Amino acid sequence: MTEREALGRRRRVVAAVVASLLVLGPLAWFWWTSLVPANASVMDMGYPDTGGAPGATPGHGHTPTDGPGVSLATLAGPSGGDPDVALTLTADTGPIEVGGRTLDGYTLNGTSPGPTIEAEVGDLVEVTLVNRSVPDGTTLHWHGVDVPNAEDGVAGVTQDAVPPGGSHVYRFVVEDAGTYWYHSHQVSHAQVRGGLFGALVVHPPGSDEGAQAVAAVHTYGAVPTINGSAESLRVPANPATRCGSAS
């Protein structure tokens, strides 16, 4: 290799290094400036919202203090009329048996998932939630269902969490067919993971849907399950039967 060729090679290497720095330098700077400081703690951010419960931080309740507001009582579901679907769901802490293992968790009416609620479009649904032994309180949020604000079940926002020994009644009309789910919206990272959820199926009016199956897929601990069972889900169906499923 001649001296001229060696000089050209060195120049190409230098040019490649400079180009790399021009690309990677800004990326490294953006990454560095996006890091959370080492002394930051999520425990120092925000405040626990207990709604209007005794001991709530002033100004953090559900009563407006700085101007006119709208009472959630006016944003509720129908207060009168006999419900088309009515049931009581009792929330408990307790062991769950899955895949031959006993795990700590939560149940609704003694099972996890909780009972599947079935209704038809236009039905008035009434669900009474009873908290028998969930120490942090609990609620029910109707995931994906268009309900009035006061029926939405978000603790600290649309209602106070239901304390142990307490109860709360949800009333709403289901207007859209589909397969939905309900779950706790209080300490949900623990309560939903531990089993406080269930399915809500809204059928079209007068529909003949053939063979249907709800597959609630959830992992308890390290055990994957369908409808609370570690076994496969089998649904009997006659030949030529139209089938559908939701998970």
Report on the structure:
The structure is a single chain. The chain has about 250 residues and is an alpha/beta fold. The chain contains 2 helices and 12 strands; from the N terminus they run H-E-E-E-E-E-E-E-H-E-E-E-E-E. The strands form 4 sheets. The chain has a 4-stranded mixed sheet, with no helix packed on it. The protein has a 4-stranded mixed sheet with strand order 3-8-7-5, with no helix packed on it. Strand 10 and strand 11 form a beta hairpin. It starts with a helix and ends with a strand.
CATH class of the domain at 73-236: Mainly Beta
Percent of sequence in beta strands: 25-35%
Secondary-structure class: alpha/beta
H-E order: HEEEEEEEHEEEEE
Number of strands: 12
